[in-house]
# Entry
Amino acid sequence: MASSGALPQRADNILLQTFRTGHAVRELMEHAVAGTGVSADEWAVLSAVGLFRSVAPTQLATVLRVPPTSISRYVARLAGNDLVVRLPNEADRRSYLLELTHEGQRTVDAIAPRFRALVTGLEERADVRAIESALLELEQAAKALDVDRRTASR
# Structure
């Protein structure tokens, strides 16, 4: 049977659709950060630091739902590029706080409008709130299965 070339209304499976969606979203995000010197992943961390104004890496890891080791790598790159600065954490001397540098704030100011425009464009084309809810539900289901996956691989 010949294909009409039209996109299907339903994905063949959720994992493959998530793969395709991830690539489409990653492409949008990479376009939004193009020419700024930061990657889309670094932007996620940098923008979170900007939102919190002063934040511990462990809090970033929790909020962004990424491993602390990944946050450490992003922080090292951002600090190395003079976009964030590490400051003493008076509440927990074993930790430190992150804040944007002047250059970090300039970068946030340059990228944030691009991301707002992308979100607005997506909202005009899709029910973004419903998608966000579905993605959160999918994330929770995936994490619940992760325990089973690790157990099965033993």
